[in-house]
């Protein structure tokens, strides 16, 4: 059966000391009141090794927000998948729209990143989603399908077991504008159907698919009540322990 997951994406927030405090807080509240879903926090690279020391791994897993598209060598400033893994991180977010948009990450680059992440034993949270213009032109299904076909549908069935998908409509990220639970469910059911076409029904039923985009304590339970929504990728609300915990607790309703 597929895993329910709530994953935080800290983005470029919190200095090292603040990040350690936040991670400790999240760990403490989850130790006091155990989650009934998987919890992941994805932090900036510089936090990973320190945050790994303060997390109870049986309750909270650690992830990075990116990794390089090269294995190793003369790529000044880059962080490889192997380096990420060596910190104790288990996950990496790839394909986030902010990386595609601001850092020109193409489908080909993402394909390389996914390959290297998997080869180094990381699980990939792979993001996809359309812009507002694309949704208004009713192109959202075609856009999402192309994003998956061009970067992850080349993977073997064995590799697929380490892929988590996150549908994040770009118009809903950090805007306070959430997709309705029906819109999110419609897209996640569509994504599951194309995963089934590619990898078979059983693999599709086992694939964790998250919704992301202004998910908060007020809308999480409604979103998570939908049959194809297996949890959330949480940006802004993952920076406040009480909000992140409330979203995790939405799985208890
Ligand atoms: C994200 O960027 O992954 C995200 C979902 O952000 P927010 O929750 O802030 O919309």
From TrEMBL:
SUPFAM superfamilies: Triosephosphate isomerase (TIM) (SSF51351)
Any one GO molecular function term: triose-phosphate isomerase activity
Matches recorded under Pfam families: TIM
Active site, renumbered: 96, 168
Isomerase in keyword set: yes
Compartment(s): Cytoplasm
Involved pathway(s): Carbohydrate biosynthesis; gluconeogenesis; Carbohydrate degradation; glycolysis; D-glyceraldehyde 3-phosphate from glycerone phosphate: step 1/1
Function according to Swiss-Prot or TrEMBL: Involved in the gluconeogenesis. Catalyzes stereospecifically the conversion of dihydroxyacetone phosphate (DHAP) to D-glyceraldehyde-3-phosphate (G3P).
Catalytic activity: D-glyceraldehyde 3-phosphate = dihydroxyacetone phosphate
GO cellular component, one term: cytosol
Family: Belongs to the triosephosphate isomerase family.
Quaternary structure annotation from Swiss-Prot or TrEMBL: Homodimer.
Top-level lineage group: Bacteria
Positions that bind substrate: 9-11, 174, 214, 235-236
Enzyme class label: isomerase
EC number: 5.3.1.1
Annotated keywords: Cytoplasm, Gluconeogenesis, Glycolysis, Isomerase
One example of a Gene Ontology biological process annotation: glycerol catabolic process
PROSITE patterns given in the database record: TIM_1, TIM_2
InterPro entries reported for this sequence: Aldolase_TIM (IPR013785), TIM_sf (IPR035990), TrioseP_Isoase_bac/euk (IPR022896), Triosephosphate_isomerase (IPR000652), Triosephosphate_isomerase_AS (IPR020861)
Name recorded for this polypeptide: Triosephosphate isomerase
């Amino acid at each position: 059966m597929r895993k329910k997951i709530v994953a935080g994406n800290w983005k470029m927030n919190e200095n090292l000391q603040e990040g350690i405090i936040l991670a400790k807080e999240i760990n403490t509240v989850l130790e006091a009141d155990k989650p009934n879903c998987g919890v992941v926090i994805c932090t900036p690279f510089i936090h990973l090794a320190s945050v790994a020391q303060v997390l109870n791994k049986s309750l909270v897993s650690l992830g990075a927000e990116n990794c390089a598209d090269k294995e190793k060598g003369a790529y000044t400033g880059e962080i490889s998948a192997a380096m990420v893994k060596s910190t104790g991180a288990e996950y990496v977010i790839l394909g986030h729209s902010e990386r595609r948009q601001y850092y020109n990450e193409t489908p080909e680059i993402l394909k390389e990143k996914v390959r290297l992440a998997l080869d180094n034993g990381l699980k990939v949270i792979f993001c996809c989603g359309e812009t507002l213009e694309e949704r208004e032109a009713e192109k959202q299904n075609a856009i999402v399908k192309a994003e998956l076909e061009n970067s992850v549908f080349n993977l073997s069935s064995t590799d697929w077991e380490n892929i988590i998908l996150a549908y994040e409509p770009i118009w809903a990220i950090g805007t306070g504008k959430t997709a309705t639970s029906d819109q999110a469910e419609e897209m996640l059911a569509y994504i599951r159907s194309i995963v089934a076409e590619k990898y078979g029904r059983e693999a599709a039923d086992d694939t964790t698919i998250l919704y992301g985009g202004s998910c908060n304590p007020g809308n999480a339970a409604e979103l998570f009540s939908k049959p194809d929504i297996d949890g959330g990728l949480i940006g802004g609300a993952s920076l406040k322990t009480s909000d992140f915990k409330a979203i995790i607790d939405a799985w208890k309703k």
